[in-house]
Amino acid sequence: MNNLIILPIVIPFIIGAILILLAKRITAQRILSGITMSFLLTLSIYLAVIVYLHGTIVLEVGNWEAPFGIVIVADLLSTFMLLLSNLVGTICLFFAFQTVAETREKQFFYPLYLFLMIGVNGAFLTGDLFNLFVFFEVMLIASYGLIVHGGTGYQLRESFKYVIINIFASALFIAAIAWIYAITGTMNMAHIAERVAELDQAGALNFVAMLLFVVFASKGALFPLYFWLPRSYFGPPAAIAALFGGLLTKVGIYAIIRTFTLMFNHDIGFTHKELIVTIAGFTMLFGVLGAVSQFDFKRILSYHIISQVGYMVMGLGIFTPLAVAGAIYYIAHHMIVKTALFLFAGVTERITGTTDLKKMGGLLGTHPWLAWFFFITAVSLAGIPPLSGFFSKFPIILSGFEEGQYVIAGVALLVGLLTLFSMIKIFSYAFWGKQKHTKEQASVPVRKLLLPIFPLVALAIILGFAAEPIFTYSLEVAEDIMDPANYIDSVLKE
Amino acid sequence: MEVLMAIMIGIIFMVSIYLMMSRNLLRVAVATLLLSHGVHLLLLTMPGLQRGDAPILSFAADAYTDPLPHALILTAIVISFAVTSLLLVMAYRTYKVHKTDDLEDLRGSADE
């Protein structure tokens, strides 16, 4: 039973290794990776249900007892993130079948894809700080491969910068691990949490907390470490851009939420309410200003990732159950909607051959389904009720006002307005107006491409109309992670 | 001894960051290599440099060394090896495609 929770890490590993051997057989690769991802999705739904009903599952790898061995922990937050990431992973894979060029598919595309999933799933499930680093690296090395996949000049140039910033952040991560090990003498996150509580997070521990925050902030694209994101996400094919946009920054956000609810939650006045909230405000503002200034479909979406990551971190910074629940709900909303929007960018690129908004127009006339699906997700992103975006922003901003954080709440409202502005900009440039694409382009069939995106659009609507049960769930997740004793007790079994 | 190590790690970090600021692709790649050495030494030094036997119970020594930092460093070395080799390949391909190793020329223009 407990062994089940290691499967999301082991299965993509084994299948990915097999796929390397089948590198030239595209059909076999597609079938195998499709089955694997669908299975992972089913498994993560099952795990989420099991953990919800029966509580946290802990696996001590190799039967080494908790503070000494490595533990794999599936609690509410982990399984929630696992479910979302495998959902996004499955959908992007099915989109990749139809859009990624065959020459690229032969170059180990699917093995890299599955290796990326090992890293992501592992980062969510591990209960050991050093293992978190290892899984981050697995994820990043696979992402280096995927982001430069195809090797065009643009990709090589921008990926180099992406790799450098990530290597630097990883080096800081090891430095933070070294300090934590020197101070607490352990690598087990629950054990670290216990010892940090004993030391009352005094002295160098606050410094280490900030160092970890910088590391995760550079992976999660927070101000001022977001500059690599818009350019590097522009290069790769749509399926990969969507996967990265939906998934990768959220792994960084997960790590921030985990460290700052489990371990470093004893100096909330300074770390959460001042520092994280301030950073969140700048992240939102600069992200959305970047988006407003752009005239490119993919770049606008990339800048919006930054502004929305700010909302999640803002929810964490305010640190009331309602705000954290809002942040968790926001992650769900963002992963679903953002992936869908990036995939729509891919579909429009397939039709018009460009992502420059000034060269597009009139898609509403030739591809109405695409246009209306895009419209639904875009207004959902902007936060128009009754879609998912409204119910994810509402609790965060509400608790901002309740806690007297008026400035940040005001910024959040302004950012919401500017988000709506730039979404409408995309809609009016690309879908309204005179038709700028040729007759042949107008008859490009997109129904098959829209098929994998449809579940995401449906989920964006369901998340809005069925907000109450899902929000209740997020609230339970938030209450679970805000009391670190739950996590510590189930890992150390005291 | 720890102080000496700390100074050395500081110097390695300094050199590495200086190289990372340079305009040459290869120097930046070497900088990441040096940086990883710096943090591995830090990982070795932070728990305290210890004298003692290998932590195998049958040795019956007075003191044992802590094996965990070594295990962590070994893992970190393997990872940084993989990343460095990947980075070198990428730097080489970037040089081949763009015909330059000057990062100033690789900034990217505003019109794309």
Count of structural domains of chain B: 1
**How would you sum up the global shape of chain A?**
globular
Secondary-structure element string of chain B: HHH
Record the strand order, biggest sheet of chain A: 1-2
Biggest interface reads: A-B, 34 and 34 residues
SS-based class of chain B: mainly alpha
Q: How many helical elements of chain A?
A: 22
Protein structure class of chain A = mainly alpha
Query: Looking at the chains present, what oligomeric state does this protein adopt?
Result: heterodimer
**What separation lies between the terminal Cα atoms of chain B?**
54 Å
Poorly predicted tracts of residues of chain A: none
Radius of gyration of chain A: 22 Å
Mean pLDDT of chain B: 87
Report the major sheet of chain B: none
Q: Unreliable stretches of chain B, pLDDT < 50, 5 or more residues? A: none
Number of strands of chain A: 2
| Number of E-state strands of chain B | 0
Helix and strand element order of chain A = HHEEHHHHHHHHHHHHHHHHHHHH
Strand content of chain B: under 5%
Explain what this protein looks like in three dimensions:
The complex is a heterodimer of chains A (494) and B (112). Chain A is mostly helical. Chain A has a domain at 267-485. Chain A contains 22 helices and two strands. With 112 residues, chain B is mainly alpha-helical. Chain B has one domain (2-49, 68-98). In chain B, 63% of the residues lie in helices and 0% in strands. The mean pLDDT of chain B is 87. The interface between A and B is medium-sized, with 34 and 34 residues.
Task: Please give a handful of descriptors for the protein shown.
heterodimer; A: 494 residues; mainly alpha; two-stranded antiparallel ribbon; globular; B: 112 residues; 0% strand; elongated
Write the layout of secondary structure elements.
The complex is a heterodimer of chains A (494) and B (112).
Chain A lengths: L6 H15 L4 H29 L2 E4 L10 E4 L1 H24 L2 H5 L2 H17 L3 H19 L5 H32 L4 H11 L4 H17 L7 H5 L5 H26 L4 H26 L3 H22 L2 H32 L10 H4 L1 H15 L5 H15 L3 H26 L7 H4 L4 H19 L1 H16 L1 H9 L2
Antiparallel strand pairs in A: 1-2
Helix pairs in contact in A: 1-2, 1-5, 2-3, 3-5, 3-11, 3-14, 3-20, 5-6, 6-7, 6-11, 7-9, 8-22, 9-11, 11-13, 11-14, 12-13, 12-18, 13-14, 13-17, 13-18, 14-16, 14-17, 14-20, 14-21, 16-18, 16-20, 17-18, 17-20
Chain B lengths: L1 H19 L4 H21 L22 H31 L14
